[in-house]
Amino acid sequence: MGPFLETLIGGLMTGMLYSLVALGFVLIFKASGVFNFAQGAMVLFAALAMARFSEWLPTITGLNEKALVNIVAFLLAMAVMVAVAWLIERLVLGKLVNQEGVTLLMATLGITYFMDGFGQTIFGSDIYKIDVGMPKEPMFLFENIFQGGLLVNQEDLAAAAIAAALVAVLSAFFQYTSTGRALRAVADDHQAAQSIGIPLQRIWVIVWSVAGFVALVAGMIWGSKLGVQFSLSQVALKALPVVILGGLTSVPGAIVGGLIIGVGEKLSEVYIGPFFGGGIEIWFAYVLALLFLLVRPQGLYGEKIIDRV
Description:
It is a single chain. This protein is mostly helical. It has one domain (2-295). Helix content is 72%, strand content 3%. It has twelve helices and two strands, in the order ααααββαααααααα. The chain has helices spanning 2-32, 39-61, 66-91, 101-123, 154-176, 178-188, 190-195, 200-226, 235-246, 251-271, 273-276, 280-295; strands spanning 138-141, 150-153. It has a two-stranded antiparallel ribbon with strand order 1-2. β1 and β2 (150-153) form a beta hairpin. α3 (66-91) packs across α8 (200-226), α5 (154-176) runs antiparallel to α8 and α6 (178-188) crosses α8. The model has no long low-confidence stretch (mean pLDDT 81).
């Protein structure tokens, strides 16, 4: 029972991080109808910005206190991501309003490759480290219940707690603030929202800025765990099955989908993987997503589209 619970807890914590990345996809799609393939590049760009700012600040300003350096680096990286969001909306997506979905998709693919290359130009292409003080040592829980206790990675636990807190804050923001209600109105019907005075361009800048903030937090956490390298943008590919499972328009769906994928891939690797020679964790999420596309293409919480003829 102990090993099963360790695997389950590890899957839940990983699933929360997947949910965090998937949330960026959902936020932008809800507000603008754009499936943002650039979310992975945004995660990488944000992580690079924070990693490099945390290196440059002590040299430029003389700051030596690690916590203060991390706070300033985070704020500077956030300012960069807001600027990126504003430029994307003004220079690209704002010019493509009411265009075909494939046009918007190609635009976000172009943004992806541009941000990957531009990030390398500005920040360099080495592997960088983000150290925000998250504990690295494992710890044992429930030693009185299970012999030897349950081994849990403290860094994963802290990362999952941060991700869960951010998801809760964003859910409350959408539900209880006037800006959040405006975002939901735009998501339901662009023209109706505009007709009652909701400025679409400002709303889109806000939602891209929020997605940039989510990307920064996700990049900070994954960068702390894996190091900031250009393969980090591939983490977003794991969020695609999460979005398919939960539904493109559902914030709760991103959470539930992330937990299902995280737990499923960990349990399948441990208990099913040996029968297939290992590696099942790599493709499990995509096979599960494919099955959902065949049976319930709108996802668990997505809106079912009914065409009347």
